[in-house]
Amino acid sequence: LLLLPVTNPYYNELFVNYKINLAQLHMRLEEYDKANEIYLSLLPKKINLNEINHNIGSLNLALGAAGKAIGYFRKVHYQNNKVVRLYNSIGEAFFNLNQYDSAAFYYQKATTAFQALGQNTDKVGYGLVLKNKGDLHLRNGKDTDAIRFYQQAIHQFYPTFADTALAANPHQFSGVFSYINLFNVLKAKADAWHRLYETTKNLSAAVQELDAYRSAFELIDYVERTYESDEARLFLTKIKYAVHGKPIDIAFELYTKTKDAAYLELLYAFDQQNKAAVLALNRQINSEAADNNSPQLEKERQIKTEITRLAIRASQVTDSVQLAAISSSIRDQEIALSKVQEELQPNAVLKTSGIPPIKTLQTKLLDDKTAIVSYHLGAEKMTTLVIGKNTVACYQQLLPRNFNELMQEEIQRVKTPGNALQSNDTINLFQFFLQHVPLAGLHQLII
What's the CA gap between 442 and 309, in Å, rounded? Predict the structure, then answer.
């Protein structure tokens, strides 16, 4: 914008285009006020009004002003494949206003438009339509129909995954796909299986719910290892709250009802993945801030940046031949990245490509006098996993009503020399955290 000369014969068109790009970046970073300010300033120029009005509508939709959003959407008149996303946006706005018949009408218009335009026109846009159709069916109590639409959406967001079975989920990721949308639809699919489980009390539905969460967590791990971008960081920050304790709760319930230790292994993996997501995010931020001269770390950053660049290119391409070429390039970069990351791992006893399984901890880390205690804090309860040399146990407890206040007081007390372990509240917390840990015979706890 600073370099654009006013004398350029296309000054106004270029100025508006650059400003739209800038506003879209603010939208992606969820800086809605900045984006809105730019869009509104562009309206008097009467250039690219369809795109501007659509984006202002989407912005208002994100802020919860669905009625206002519809007003902007109605000013848009596309003559290209963007009409699919427009109809989907209008349907989403009506859904947020609880006007479900109108939402269904516009989702169907979006579907008809996509089918008329051809199958390669905008797979991600159509995937969003299918995901929203699933949400609508879930809202209407049609859980199985919702799962069917979510499965179809998965195929649009990740085209190389071809399994149409409702129980099938991708467990390996590579190439070109829309990872944020894929994560959202896997989470929605898990929610739908959970609703079906609550309705029928059929354990197979809970098993399918857990598998959908497992796919979502494997996707998180892939993004952590592969992408280096603000968008990836924002995604990793938000997913901590998007799933968090749900898969842990359902794994615990399945273990309680079946006594199958495999569910404890999954619970442990979900718990560690939650912690790993936070650590990975901090590692990304700290590695940028630090003056790190490691050539391997620099090589890792360069490959991640290249993968991110290729993924952005892929999002702007609809030609299947071009997409295949970009996807092949991404896979080559992923192989190179995997080799670098293996070299970066320390030569520790627990060296592994992912989270070490419980058996590895027991054989390589623990002795008869040591146990691992892992806590997972949910909104209303705490899950405690206790791993001994030859035993694994898991417990859930409801949190005390004033738990957060007690914790904050105790943290302040511990920070003040000489004041620790001096109140009944402290003793209660001590008992709360350790009442299920078999301390007899133990000399050391790894928490």
Answer: 52
Q: Which helix (H) or strand (E) holds 15?
A: helix 11-28
Q: For residue 380, what is the DSSP state? A: S
Task: Answer for the pair 53, 76: CB distance below 8 angstroms, yes or no.
Answer: yes
Q: Global pTM?
A: 0.85
Any residues with CB less than 8 A from the CB of 199 and at least 6 apart, and which? 143
Contacts 24+ apart (CB under 8 A), 111-114: 113/83, 113/84, 113/87, 114/84
**Closest Cα partner for 120 from 322, 265, 266?**
322
Amino acid at 112: T
Three-state SS string over 90-104 comes to HHHHHHHCCCHHHHH
Instruction: Give 21-48 pLDDT, tens digit per residue.
Output: 999 999 988 899 999 999 999 999 999 9
Q: Shortest CA distance to 171 belongs to which of 114, 199, 120, 210?
A: 210
C-alpha separations of 326 from 182, 227, 228, 307 in Å? 19, 16, 18, 10
CA–CA distance, 181 with 199 (Å, rounded to integer): 27
| Nearest C-alpha neighbor of 287 from the set 302, 309, 271, 306 | 302
Distance CA 439, CA 46 (A): 73
Strand partners, 387: 372, 392
Q: Whole-angstrom Cα distance, residue 194 to residue 245? A: 14
The DSSP-derived string for 334-379 is HHHHHHHHHHHS---TT--SSSPPHHHHHHHT--TTEEEEEEEE-S
What are the tens digits of pLDDT across the range 126-156? 999 999 999 999 999 999 999 999 999 999 9
